[in-house]
Amino acid sequence: MRLTTKGRYAVTAMLDLALNAENKPISLADISRRQDISLSYLEQLFSKLRQQGLVSSVRGPGGGYKLSRDAEAICVAEIIDAVNESIDATNCGGSGNCSDGQICLTHHLWCDLSDQIHQFLSSISLAGLVARNDVREVAERQNRERDREQTLEFIGAGGA
Amino acid sequence: MRLTTKGRYAVTAMLDLALNAENKPISLADISRRQDISLSYLEQLFSKLRQQGLVSSVRGPGGGYKLSRDAEAICVAEIIDAVNESIDATNCGGSGNCSDGQICLTHHLWCDLSDQIHQFLSSISLAGLVARNDVREVAERQNRERDREQTLEFIGAGGA
DNA sequence: TTATAGTTGACTAAAGTAGTAGGGAATTAG
DNA sequence: CTAATTCCCTACTACTTTAGTCAACTATAA
Ligand code: FES
Ligand code: FES
């Protein structure tokens, strides 16, 4: 089992999508700016998210990505699964044969742990995250920062 | 966060120790045979387990490792921590600064997840595992296999 | 004194992570 | 129409970690 920047980026980007969607598509460039994630890397992640049917894409100017379902119907577990293979904690992948073809001493422990994690991450939807106070606060800060950056760019362009 | 063979081996080996300890030390060679884990790799893992004070060692013939505490007082979380750095799911390591020095959108989510996993793995002691039926069954099978192997070796030695 | 068993450090192949680079192909604003 | 925008795809790379191997050394019990 692993949970690395890859899965975290994916969840963060999907949450950004849920927060900023006003039924128009959001470009990866926007997400990249707001969440400080490399654009090329986002493209790789969204390729997988699209393959799993979590987002749909619109090409061309004004295009980008949209959630392909309601934010209530997308849970964190799905997102991590989509980019990250799995959140399975066993060595055998559930087949119970990692100790010379036989079940190992700790198999059931890792199964229980996997269940535990999966239940937890399945119980959290994007909508649930959007509703959280701490998430809203961070999102507002990011919007303020983005506005300021745009103002600075404008002044810079005007002054030059 | 990661949970790989490393942490799983460590827990399996510690559980083997708890199962087979009759207040005499168990050699890594025994554990290696029973659990099918490379001896040299076990040495590395037990070096860390000893540094964390989870086991104590006895050198020389008849030596080996013993649990340095009661099996009730050693939980799975500790063992994984000892060999695996941490089971922290955040990117920032808890300091809340992974998005350009600021807290990121999903920080609290990963904190909650970390708590969840840590609570679960802390609630399980080696003694708790030893008491489980599925663990006892696997252990008994391993003991039968080891006995048979010893018999075969004996016959092989006698016949040659 | 010798075989046993822990202790330590250096080394390695393979895999995965977190990207970068660069070319396409669709679409639409101008 | 055309040029800019945006997604799409493949290949490449530096780096880290994993899961080991190997070899030399130290303590100790029989
Ligand atoms: S983890 Fe499933 S058999 Fe070992
Ligand atoms: S994970 Fe803690 S700030 Fe991003």
Question: In words, what does this structure look like?
Answer:
The structure is a homodimer of 160-residue chains. Chain A contains seven helices and two strands, in the order H-H-H-E-E-H-H-H-H. Chain A is mainly alpha-helical. The first copy, chain A, has a two-stranded antiparallel ribbon with strand order 1-2. In chain A, strand 1 and strand 2 (64-67) form a beta hairpin. The longest helix of chain A is centred in the last third of the chain and has 27 residues, at 133-159. The first copy, chain A, is elongated. The termini of chain A are far apart. The mean pLDDT of chain A is 90. The complex binds FE2/S2 (inorganic) cluster (2 copies). Residues 90-92, 96-99, 103-104, 107, 110 of chain A line the site of one FE2/S2 (inorganic) cluster. The structure holds a DNA duplex (30 and 30 nucleotides).
Structural class of chain A: mainly alpha
Main β-sheet, spatial strand arrangement of chain A: 1-2
Oligomer: homodimer
Strands of chain A, total number: 2
Secondary-structure map with pairings?
The structure is a homodimer of 160-residue chains.
Chain A: H1 5-20, H2 28-35, H3 39-51, E1 55-58, E2 64-67, H4 76-84, H5 107-122, H6 126-130, H7 133-159
Antiparallel strand pairs in A: 1-2
Chain A binds a DNA duplex (30 and 30 nucleotides) through residues 2, 4-6, 9, 25, 27-29, 38, 40-41, 43-44, 46-47, 50, 57-65.
Keywords:
DNA-binding; mainly alpha; two-stranded antiparallel ribbon; binds FE2/S2 (inorganic) cluster; 7 helices; homodimer; 160 residues
